[in-house]
Design brief:
It is built from 10 helices and 18 strands. By secondary structure, it is an alpha+beta fold. An 8-stranded mixed beta sheet has the order 1-2-6-3-7-16-8-15, sandwiched between helices. A 4-stranded antiparallel beta sheet has the order 4-5-18-17, with helices on one face. A 4-stranded antiparallel beta sheet has the order 11-13-9-14, covered by helices on one side. Helix 1 packs across helix 10. The protein is elongated.
Amino acid sequence: MNEKTRHIATAYADEAYEEELELLRALAQIPAPSGHEERRAEFVRDWLLAQGAPVGSVRVDGAKNVILNLPAGPGTPGDGGLAVFAAHTDVVFPDTDALPLAESATRLLAPGVGDDTANLVGLLMAARWFLRHRPALDRPILVVANSCEEGLGNLAGTRELFSHYAGRVAEFTSFDLYLGTHVTHAVGSHRWRVICHTEGGHSWENFGRDNAIEALCSFIEDLYALELPTRAKTTVNVGRFVGGTTVNSIAEEASVLVEYRSSSEECLEEMYGKFVVLVEEHLREHTRIDAKLIGRRPASGEVVPDGQEGLIARTDRIIRDLGGVTPEHHESSTDANIPFSLGIPAHTVGTVVGDLLHTREEWIEKDSLRRGLAVILALMLEHATEL
């Protein structure tokens, strides 16, 4: 990073701070459950147009991704591929009414404020700088406010993006989580809905019949007793259990949501085999168990793509210099899973200070927006040929 880039990034972050904070207050209150991000998508599209984006340069695709195209400079070869900078619009909460917002002198609190609304706002403000100054670029840049990163969204927004731009993306940066977090490897997962059906009946008159709750409890106990692969970290979790009707009824239906994770595709496939066998082992004469795969996120590929090490190294320098923290490399599950699995240089970068993600008490430090915006803008300015 040269001194001019540093000066532009830090000066703009200070200059835009109050407007960035106001934008965050507005966006953080717009509900956006995974798969239902249309209100945020419309807000982001209209905001970009209001900042001077040409009408033809902004679109909302079928997956509710908002995509801004910043073209390469004149005379730039067209075969260098796209640089994508993204942040997701969805939050983990199902609210359809306005999300609650609270504020103190130093903090802003809202469900999903750091995961991922504040990172998205930083990306939008950086995009505004490009719309105003229009520097020459060494390749086209896509600024993407994508859908369906959380939970059972199954990365549908990013999947659609890479389907539409197949073979054209050269590198991918997503902004998510907290400052200092640098996700350099993808953790994949398989997610299942397991439903147990039994005959059910009255707790006294029909005592002895199979109970769907008891059957699933036995299944869960054996699931946690499985020998997990050790070639890479592998985990298993039961995240939700629903079943039964009343205290004096033998439950005739119960269901659980299950996931297993690993940073290795080989370990995920091994777990797939173990899981299917376990389901079969728990079938009984009067008990039916149905397992449906409802989400599949790929892990990193086995081969490190060309350009990955350079992307990580220059990002680490910018995080240290402008973020003021020492970056920590992590394995995690983010939108970068998709390009990781395709052998495309990719990573996920946190840009705000905060805590309590995936709770309704999540907060961010307002002043950290300055450092975060400087980091985002500096990373994007790596593709500017003239400043």
